[in-house]
Amino acid sequence: MDPSDIKSAISFLAAGNDFLVTSHINSDGDSIASSLSMLRILNKLGKRASVILQDVPEDHYDFLDGYECIETAGSPTTLRDRAVVLDCPSFARIGSARGHMSEDVALLNVDHHKDNALFGASNLVRDVSSTCELLYHLVVEMGISIDAALAELLYTGILYDTGGFRYSLTTSTTLEAAAALVRQGARLDLVADRLYNSSSLETVKLVGSAIDSLELSHGGRVATLHLSHEDMRRGDPEEAVDYGLRVKGVEVTVLLKEEKPKKYRVSLRSRHDIDVSAVAAVFGGGGHARASGCRLEGTGAEVRAALLEQIGKVLA
Ligand SMILES: [Mn+2]
């Protein structure tokens, strides 16, 4: 690792005593686990810290150490002047957690998105599997002991963002980090079970509805799945997007979720070298080459047509 940004991050953490720790809206496994890891790291350094998120995650993350400490952004009683922002390509992605910071807040930006805007006073940004993998390397560099709780937090974020060590950002270094974390006490069976086997009955049934809706286009290279607003009132089966790629020949899969009437949240996944973050970016979204997301407004047919047109441009 290039030492200058690591040193800068370590100095940033050493210089303060009270930190706000936050991450992106619509928190996911890596953002929550990296936030709680940072809380634990700061506590080990003898510092105070609070984790404040716009969207506190569903309770199936309640096995994570420190989960009960997460606060929902709301009406701040004090404004913080030092913050660690995790897993966010841009500062705006923290949403309403911004309201808990002073105008001149000093930021440490720790992230693994390739389009990161380097918005911090200190920026630790690497093209690795997950923010949790990056934090693992930071912790090793700092010489902090990794207890079982911290190991399990970091392992959870890595497992989540690599889709169970399957996505292309999973490297031999990722696997070595994960092995070290299991050695330190991360319970891999429990983490996998909690991440992947804890949906509600309705959400599991909705995966079936999404699969029923699957349509192919572009000569069988693109799969679209659709969940109506009525469906979305019963659950949120994000994992349904992956079923499109199970079809041989499909290179891009898209899940359209009508979160509010005519307001869609869209997830994109790809195989090979197709960059779906370029598609998401056209609609103001972002993410990674193989996994990205965006929001669109319109009828299902309009949203689908707009997306398929842009996807056609990234298909070689
Ligand atoms: Mn991440």
The biggest beta sheet, please?
6 strands, parallel
Helical segment count: 10
Structural class: alpha/beta
Beta-strand segment tally: 12
**Rg (CA only):** 20 Å
* Euclidean distance between termini CA atoms: 34 Å
Strand content: 15-25%
Low-confidence runs: none
Kindly report the average pLDDT value.
95
Silhouette: globular
Cofactors, ions and other ligands in the entry: manganese (II) ion
Amount of helix: 25-40%
User: What pattern of helices and strands is seen along the backbone?
Assistant: HEHEEEEEHHHHHEEHEEHEEH
Which strand order spans the largest sheet, edge to edge or round the barrel?
Answer: 3-2-1-4-5-6
Q: Quick gist of this model?
A:
This protein is an alpha/beta fold and 316 residues long. It has helices at 3-15, 29-44, 131-142, 148-161, 172-183, 188-196, 201-212, 229-232, 276-282, 300-314, and strands at 18-23, 48-53, 71-72, 80-86, 101-111, 122-125, 215-217, 222-227, 252-260, 263-270, 286-287, 291-297. The mean pLDDT is 95.
Defining traits:
six-stranded parallel sheet, six-stranded mixed sheet, 36% helix, binds manganese (II) ion
Protein architecture, described:
The protein is an alpha/beta fold and 316 residues long. The protein is 36% helix and 22% strand. The chain is built from ten helices and twelve strands. The chain has helices at residues 3-15, 29-44, 131-142, 148-161, 172-183, 188-196, 201-212, 229-232, 276-282, 300-314; strands spanning 18-23, 48-53, 71-72, 80-86, 101-111, 122-125, 215-217, 222-227, 252-260, 263-270, 286-287, 291-297. The protein has a six-stranded parallel β-sheet with strand order 3-2-1-4-5-6, covered by helices on one side. A six-stranded mixed β-sheet has the order 7-8-9-10-12-11. Strand 8, helix 8 and strand 9 form a beta-alpha-beta unit. Helix 2 runs parallel beside helix 3 (131-142) and helix 9 (276-282) crosses helix 10 (300-314). The model has no long low-confidence stretch (mean pLDDT 95). Manganese (II) ion binds at residues 30, 87, 112, 130-131, 161.
